[in-house]
Amino acid sequence: MTTDPAAAEETEPVTGPEPGGPGAGPGAEDDGGSADGSRAPAGPEDEVAAGATDTTDTGSGEGGASESESEGPAADGASGDGTAADTAAQLSEAEAELAAQRELRERIERRKAEKEGPVQAGARLTGKAADLLAAVRAVESGEKPPASVFTEPEPAPRRSAPEPVRRPQAMPSATPAPVASEAVDTVRAVLVEGGAPEALAAQVAAVLGEGADTQLREDPWQLLRVTGVRPEQADGFARALLGAECGPDDERRGRAVTVWLLEQAALAGHTALEAQALHAALAQRSVPDPDAAVQSALAEGEALVFQDALDEPGAPPAPAPSEEDGEGEEGEAERPVRVLIGLERYALAEESLADGLARVVNSLPKEDGSAAGWESAATGSAAELIRAVAGHGLVLHTGGEASRTEPAALAAVARSLGLRVCVATHTPDGRHRFAALLASAEGAERGPVSGPDPLSAPGFGAEEETGAPDRPRHGTDDGPGSPAWTHDGAAGTHGGASGRPGDGQPGEAGTHETVTTVAGLLAGTEGPGRDTDGLLRTDLLIVLDAPQLDVESAAMLAESLPDGARLVLSGDPGVLWSAGPGRVFADLLAARACPQVASRTPDPGPLGELVSGIGIGELNQVAAPGKEVVIVPVRDAGEAVHRTVQLVADSVPRAIGIPAEQTQVITTGHGGAAGTRALNTALKERLNPGPGRFGGFDPGDRIAYSPAPGRTVPGQVVKADADGLHLECAGAPVVVPKERVEQTVRHGWALTAHQAVGARWPAAVVVLPGDAAQALTRPWIYTAFGRADQHLSVVHGVDQALPRAVAEVAAKPRTTRLPALLRAQIPAAG
């Protein structure tokens, strides 16, 4: 059972029993739902009421926190043979306690005796004080005091301060803590009694903790805390345990459903819900008194309530106070507010993020002695960004793939000025690619360098012709003609075995601590490390792929910055938002609380032209005579799978020269006839057939590994043994325990757009079967099409749904509190 915090690619609702039927129980899965949330209802209340994100198996969230199904080591190892030893141990402890009490009484008696006796002056003095007292007494008696008393000893040589010890703040592990087998057994008994699947026992014991069986008997709706369980399934479980006492108006049910709806909203990206939307969702879940249910959750501390002022554009202005108004409450102007309900976890994260950003904005020294250095370095396309960073603590930078040269130039300039620089990307692939850009930028700082620019290699700038995506061309499914170019960076930027660009990037060794991933930086496994206060040892932090920052990760980064450090958030606002709750980058852009620098560097070539048009809502025809973009029309999902395998295994390698391992398939979701499961099954049969002896995997399989919710790392299976499944991910070995394989590892020839965001491949095949029409949004199409470096094939079966989605279906809104919190602490920039 897996979960995706983004709830964006596709949901797999757990098929529960009919209301009143506990027999089916929670835990069964099927395929369905939406991709990237576009099939969810329009409003937040409809979304949470419909359970659009129930137990999702999508996006990049495999391996979520709910994957606690592995049983820990037995905790009841003591047997009858150990009874005597336990008794002896208890006796020894008792004897030790008595001895300690006797010793304490003796010390007390000695202190009393000393206090009652005569006090001898100076008897308690030691060291220097005792020597001085002896000298005074010698002078009084006419003797000569020792000379050593009045001479200062030679000072000890000063030692240099040791290097500050790193104190990395590790991110929470996705691996569940071991649970005692005895606790699992007691929970299993309760689940069986209530008609729920026994397989949930370990997960329930891990989520509810100590006394899980008792908690379930007292409040059966606690089962909703387990990811994947739906309210109707919990109702059936409660009915089996409570009998006639169970009813829809039970206070315990209303409270549990309230928390469940807030958790589902978080999976859809909301950090809070408006009270009206939450009430509507509760009513749709057959809660007779939604207000009482919310108040119960608030009283128990399971949710928090907030009142945010409505100062957003279009909101009614606060009435101005009148001079005729009397004093007191009647004379105070009422300010319009919106009431929000949220989980404490995300509420605290948003408040911490707002505090951290305000500290970054306000703590930058006015005069840091480097203004002249910044100004002299502000040249080229990065000049505006460099000037903005020179004078401000927080700067936002927007642009496409080609605009990454500007943060690279900024990092090179800052390092040349002696600042400690750290750059964090969303994926290991992004880290590899930016390391090459930084090496090139630093070479330019030192002087001319030989070799091609990573972003100006042949194939990026050629004007070539293609059929318009909304007007499919027939007869192109055999592949895009003869190769019109060869990518000079193939060995360096696309030479990895996994097909990910960036493996073996030049210059990476010298920038290992400078260029990191966000996850590695927060976990302390990458980057410059931390000082004794737990703060990052950096003067400038540049975060790329900023739209992928969820509110918790962003808050941890802001809290980790020392006073006076600069923060640059850079990214493409057109891509899909973060897998986790929040829309940090979009909220900051809307708040206008800091300088914003929009890159003027366009993405080159036909692919750049196509993707840039999609970003502004236009699906343009682009000239691509070398067939960088190929449309493959299909009639149904079965044909889509067949054509996809043909493109990956034969057409693209033969016609373009890009091997199958460097081609990535992207589709709308995991389930369905043309989802990732069906595509990966077909691709494995063609590219790496095998029996799948270890959980369906064989050595050489391409995989997608999700070590934590919202993170996906492409890799390859190396082998399997008693320790688990051995993978190679981003050039590093990874061992996944056997019990975690099902939840955290998938085949990776085909990915969802959320899994692919932040990475690029030489070739991408985007599959759009007919049943994906309702799942398409402009951000999804923009993200999927933008994963290709050299060649894009579109397996097209959605007809006019594609141009309609580009023109009309924008990103689904998320409810967050960050803009209001920022307005209260940071004045809007002009």
For the structure shown, list the relevant keywords.
five-stranded parallel sheet, 830 residues, disordered N terminus, six-stranded parallel sheet, alpha/beta, 19 strands
Which value, in Å, is the CA radius of gyration? 32 Å
Strand order of the largest sheet: 6-5-7-8-4-9
Tell me what portion of residues adopts beta-strand conformation.
5-15%
Number of strands: 19
Number of helices: 27
Approximately how much helix is present in the residues? 25-40%
* Low-confidence runs of at least 5 consecutive residues: 1-45, 49-91, 155-174, 313-323, 449-510
Mean pLDDT: 77
What's the N-to-C terminus distance?
Answer: 49 Å
Shape: globular
Structural description of this entry:
The protein is of the alpha/beta class. Helices cover 37% and strands 12% of the residues. The chain has a six-stranded parallel sheet, sandwiched between helices. α9 crosses α10 and α25 packs across α26. The longest helix is centred in the N-terminal third of the chain and has 34 residues.
